[in-house]
Amino acid sequence: MDTHGNLFHVSDQDFETQVLKSDTPVIVDFWAAWCGPCRAIAPVYEKLSEEYQGKLGFAKLDIDANEVTPSRWGVQAIPTLVIFKGGKEVGRMVGAHPMRLKNDIDRILAQVSVA
Description:
Blueprint: E1 3-4, E2 7-9, H1 15-20, E3 26-31, H2 36-51, E4 57-62, H3 68-72, E5 80-85, E6 88-94, H4 98-111
Parallel strand pairs: 2-4, 3-4
Antiparallel strand pairs: 1-2, 3-5, 5-6
């Protein structure tokens, strides 16, 4: 697992242990290297990973290198950001909306009593 502070990369092989079985909720950025909007949102995602340290884990999953997990969770467009808590999806954001990302995360976390 490639780690950078609260931001880590997951794969089909470790998705269950790193995301679904995590004690802390985790947001997963389903992305691809060729995706311009994915690259545009990356700096905001990385900055937010520092801000939410201890409250929300931030994972990235490359859909080109890992085809099973995106299919299993119905990811049909990228970027798709999905928040998981207790092994279940609790929120989803599709598309690159860097200015809305923090508000969307806060709203979802408040709904699942994490914030």
